[in-house]
């Protein structure tokens, strides 16, 4: 039989546990962590070997810390924003402050996310121009270094998933089939519209990694497709395709949706170093 004193102890322990879990969830949602990765790409030109990409997705309404990110100023060859740079009711002044901080890290390119389109896409496009960034809407940018090239392609976010995605813009030039390609797309659901992955490296966000994840069960609020493609690195081998070994990173994102809480899914940004994979014998 549970006595009154024991009952109070049990309630106290449960309450303390709830407070600790809530504190942990709030902490994970407010992190400024930068996840470092190294990715080996077979078709990467030698001139780009060792180059770095700073990738951030799904900022939503969060504020970036200039003090924290000062250590990364001029430390990346490329800054890529994977969409949902803002959301409804976020002041453009805050968005511009975030963009100014990111622009100090390196040359900046961005794609729209679904929340950007619902908020103020024209205002966001203007702010990107003002800070020297480039918005890619189904466009290619040919990055050049020592006479060698990498193609950066930004896939535009459809207003509705029913609209689907257009084909990637074609690469120009007679040697286009051998160009290393990086594709930035906000929503990994884009994979449903491509028979073979058409890029050496794909960068995506949107999922937030589920935001709330349980040990052993994973994300609790993602559909079947997104539970498969929730967050982290994915690799394929498609020997008959132009790109033999495509890879994709789906970010857990920097910001949060609805509540400023995360569990087993801390907020993140990324510093990705590109390495040329050794040729197979």
TrEMBL record:
Pfam family, one: Metallophos
UniProt xrefs under Gene3D superfamilies: 3.60.21.10
InterPro entries: Calcineurin-like_PHP (IPR004843), Metallo-depent_PP-like (IPR029052), Metallophosphoesterase_sf (IPR051158)
A GO cellular component entry from the record: membrane
Membrane-crossing residue ranges in chain numbering: 6-27
Superkingdom of source: Bacteria
Keywords (A to Z) from UniProt: Membrane, Transmembrane, Transmembrane helix
One example of a Gene Ontology biological process annotation: lipid A biosynthetic process
Keyword Methyltransferase: no
Electron transport recorded as keyword: no
Domain Calcineurin-like phosphoesterase: 52-209
GO molecular function list: UDP-2,3-diacylglucosamine hydrolase activity
PANTHER family: PHOSPHOESTERASE, TRANSMEMBRANE PROTEIN WITH METALLOPHOSPHOESTERASE DOMAIN-RELATED
Protein name as annotated: Metallophosphoesterase family protein
Organism expressing this protein natively: Paenibacillus mangrovi
């Amino acid at each position: 039989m549970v006595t009154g004193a024991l009952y109070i102890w049990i309630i106290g322990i449960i309450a303390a546990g709830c407070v600790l879990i809530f504190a942990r969830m709030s902490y994970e949602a407010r992190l400024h962590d930068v996840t470092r990765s190294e990715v080996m790409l077979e078709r990467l030109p030698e001139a780009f070997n060792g180059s770095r990409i700073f990738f951030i997705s799904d900022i939503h309404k969060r504020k970036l810390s200039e003090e924290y990110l000062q250590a990364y100023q001029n430390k990346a060859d490329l800054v890529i924003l994977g969409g949902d740079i803002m959301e409804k009711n976020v002041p453009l002044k805050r968005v511009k402050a975030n963009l100014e901080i990111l622009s100090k890290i390196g040359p900046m390119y961005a794609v729209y996310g679904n929340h950007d389109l619902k908020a103020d896409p024209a205002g966001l496009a203007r702010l990107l121009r003002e800070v020297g960034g480039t918005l890619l809407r189904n466009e290619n940018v040919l990055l050049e270094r020592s006479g060698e090239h990498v193609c950066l392609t930004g896939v535009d976010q459809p207003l509705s998933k029913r609209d689907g995605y257009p084909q990637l813009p074609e690469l120009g030039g007679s040697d286009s089939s051998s160009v290393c390609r990086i594709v930035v797309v906000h929503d990994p659901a884009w994979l449903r519209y491509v028979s073979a992955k058409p890029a050496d490296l794909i960068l995506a966000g949107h999922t937030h990694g589920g935001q709330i994840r349980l040990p052993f069960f994973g994300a609790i609020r993602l559909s079947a497709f997104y539970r498969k493609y929730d967050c982290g690195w994915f690799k394929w081998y498609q020997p008959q395709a132009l790109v033999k070994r495509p890879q994709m990173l789906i970010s857990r994102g920097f910001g949060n949706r609805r509540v400023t809480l995360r569990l087993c899914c801390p907020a993140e940004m990324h510093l990705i170093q590109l390495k040329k994979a050794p040729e197979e014998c």
